[in-house]
Amino acid sequence: MDRHNLDGDEAVRSTNDDASHCKRFAVHLGYWSDPYLPLLVRNTERKTPEINRGYFARVTVITNMVEKFIKAMKGNCQIVNFGAGFDTLFWKLKGADLPVKKFVEIDFANVTSRKCHYIKNNNKLMEALHCDDEEVSYNTTELHSGIYHLASADLRKLSEVESKLKECSMEFSVPTLFLFECVLVYMPIQFSHSLLQLIADKFSTTFCINYEQVNMTDRFGDVMLSNLRSRGCSLAGVEACASLKTQEDRFILNGWDGAQALEMNQVYHGLISPQEIQRIEKIEFLDEKELLDQLFHHYCICVAWKDSLDLKLNLLSIS
């Protein structure tokens, strides 16, 4: 891999720290509760109200959809979080008494090594990993228990991904939910297509939640791309982010039965209760509501499915 790609990879890895600090600050202000995040993320950084509301919408809706999936499956399911970073979803689900058969996180080794370090050195995080007295094993970059696996891999390399899924004892016939939060967009389109095809080929009943940019062909999108490039971070897969249709099509073209994408404006006003919106909008005064609308117009959630069990589970609905 050439020097340019190495620099680009490092910039992509740094997005984990950016996102973690954003979430930490929003939690500090009271947008949502997460007692586990401060155990993994020590630093915080002041962000603007529109950024905080954006993360609130993202975290709230994805958490609600994951919980809906688990309840529909009565816990007989698996979750795989690709590019998980310092996400705390496993611990939040455990704390809410929503266990699953297996929860797997996969990310770059230099991200998982830091997460391993923090988990190993915190009793509260470690205690949640124990199941039926099974031993927790770990090395410098990975951690494995009966229900939770933190593994390192480059998602562009299918052989690595397949190997890690096998090491984590994934069951291909068990309903499995895959999570991607601003992950696919950093991969050249041929690599993200291959990864989505691999999932569709391997898992008979699978759902996917993908959160990332959309409507990136306008002036606002150009500015966003320019800002990211100035930080050495190019969106290599941005062609799939042209519209809601291109977001949906990449799943259909790679072996999935169907897909549905919604802009975050639709998500914010349609999938979050009015009471919750009223509560969080009192936390900070938002000077320019148009800026939040613009931001929400350029992010989306896309849900895809391969439904061999004919579950007819609609994650993008209120229930």
Automatic annotation (TrEMBL):
Gene3D superfamilies in the cross-refs: Vaccinia Virus protein VP39
GO molecular function terms noted in the UniProt entry: protein C-terminal leucine carboxyl O-methyltransferase activity
Keyword Phosphoprotein: no
Binding-site list for S-adenosyl-L-methionine: 58, 83, 154-155, 181
Keywords in alphabetical order: Methyltransferase, S-adenosyl-L-methionine, Transferase
EC number: 2.1.1.233
UniProt xrefs under Pfam families: LCM
InterPro entries per the UniProt record, alphabetical: LCMT1, Ppm1/Ppm2/Tcmp, SAM-dependent_MTases_sf
Reaction catalyzed: [phosphatase 2A protein]-C-terminal L-leucine + S-adenosyl-L-methionine = [phosphatase 2A protein]-C-terminal L-leucine methyl ester + S-adenosyl-L-homocysteine
Domain of life of the native organism: Eukaryota
Keyword Signal listed: no
Biological process annotations from GO: methylation; regulation of mitotic cell cycle spindle assembly checkpoint
GO cellular component, one term: cytosol
Functional note: Methylates the carboxyl group of the C-terminal leucine residue of protein phosphatase 2A catalytic subunits to form alpha-leucine ester residues.
Listed PANTHER family: LEUCINE CARBOXYL METHYLTRANSFERASE, LEUCINE CARBOXYL METHYLTRANSFERASE 1
Family to which this protein belongs: Belongs to the methyltransferase superfamily. LCMT family.
Protein name: Leucine carboxyl methyltransferase 1
